[in-house]
């Protein structure tokens, strides 16, 4: 419980909230059909990938920049994260993503808004892991592969 009283714990929670807010806002905002014609899968993939790479670089030293409950759960199950921190991250990520989607909903005209970027993923996609403290301990080195793998996943798996 001492962890709950540390300022680094609350900075990390705030970083996960802000990271999730920005990720949802930027990624979903780029997925919307702002101009007539087919949606740009490449633009959407790059937006999500670059947003994630930027967030890993900017927030990785504070919280690890998980920005995704699945990543946080994986770290918890791998004993790389304490239960209180994992629960704080999960709550911050959900609330941050909801806040980001809410901001986007509020600033986007109804004809552009549509389903707010909801998409389907193609079958047969798998996981990819690139961030492991046991390698060199520098989260900045994970920013590029995390962002690129996310962009490639979108290009491959999003219709």
UniProtKB/TrEMBL annotation:
<protein>
    <recommendedName>
        <fullName>Lens fiber major intrinsic protein</fullName>
    </recommendedName>
</protein>
<dbReference type="GO" id="GO:0070161">
    <property type="term" value="C:anchoring junction"/>
</dbReference>
<comment type="similarity">
    <text>Belongs to the MIP/aquaporin (TC 1.A.8) family.</text>
</comment>
<feature type="transmembrane region" description="Helical">
    <location>
        <begin position="89"/>
        <end position="108"/>
    </location>
</feature>
<keyword id="KW-0965">Cell junction</keyword>
<dbReference type="GO" id="GO:0015250">
    <property type="term" value="F:water channel activity"/>
</dbReference>
<dbReference type="InterPro" id="IPR034294">
    <property type="entry name" value="Aquaporin_transptr"/>
</dbReference>
<dbReference type="InterPro" id="IPR000425">
    <property type="entry name" value="MIP"/>
</dbReference>
<keyword id="KW-0813">Transport</keyword>
<dbReference type="GO" id="GO:0005212">
    <property type="term" value="F:structural constituent of eye lens"/>
</dbReference>
<keyword id="KW-0812">Transmembrane</keyword>
<keyword id="KW-1003">Cell membrane</keyword>
<keyword id="KW-0472">Membrane</keyword>
<dbReference type="GO" id="GO:0016324">
    <property type="term" value="C:apical plasma membrane"/>
</dbReference>
<dbReference type="InterPro" id="IPR023271">
    <property type="entry name" value="Aquaporin-like"/>
</dbReference>
<keyword id="KW-0273">Eye lens protein</keyword>
<feature type="transmembrane region" description="Helical">
    <location>
        <begin position="140"/>
        <end position="158"/>
    </location>
</feature>
<feature type="transmembrane region" description="Helical">
    <location>
        <begin position="55"/>
        <end position="77"/>
    </location>
</feature>
<dbReference type="Pfam" id="PF00230">
    <property type="entry name" value="MIP"/>
</dbReference>
<comment type="function">
    <text>Aquaporins form homotetrameric transmembrane channels, with each monomer independently mediating water transport across the plasma membrane along its osmotic gradient. Specifically expressed in lens fiber cells, this aquaporin is crucial for maintaining lens water homeostasis and transparency. Beyond water permeability, it also acts as a cell-to-cell adhesion molecule, forming thin junctions between lens fiber cells that are essential for maintaining the ordered structure and transparency of the lens.</text>
</comment>
<dbReference type="InterPro" id="IPR022357">
    <property type="entry name" value="MIP_CS"/>
</dbReference>
<keyword id="KW-1133">Transmembrane helix</keyword>
<feature type="transmembrane region" description="Helical">
    <location>
        <begin position="12"/>
        <end position="35"/>
    </location>
</feature>
């Amino acid at each position: 419980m001492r962890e709950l009283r540390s300022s680094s714990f609350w900075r990390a929670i705030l970083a996960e909230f802000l990271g999730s807010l920005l990720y949802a806002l930027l990624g979903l905002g780029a997925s919307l059909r702002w101009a007539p014609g087919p949606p740009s899968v490449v633009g959407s993939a790059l937006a999500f990938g670059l947003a994630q790479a930027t967030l890993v670089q900017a927030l990785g030293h504070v919280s690890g920049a998980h920005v995704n409950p699945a990543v946080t759960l994986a770290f918890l199950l791998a004993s790389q994260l304490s239960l209180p921190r994992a629960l704080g991250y999960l709550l911050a990520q959900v609330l941050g993503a909801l806040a980001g989607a809410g901001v986007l909903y509020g600033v986007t005209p109804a004809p552009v808004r549509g389903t707010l970027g909801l998409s389907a993923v193609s079958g047969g996609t798998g996981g990819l892991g690139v961030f492991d403290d046991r390698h060199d301990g520098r989260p900045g080195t994970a920013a590029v592969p995390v962002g690129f793998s996310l962009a490639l996943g979108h290009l491959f798996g999003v219709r």
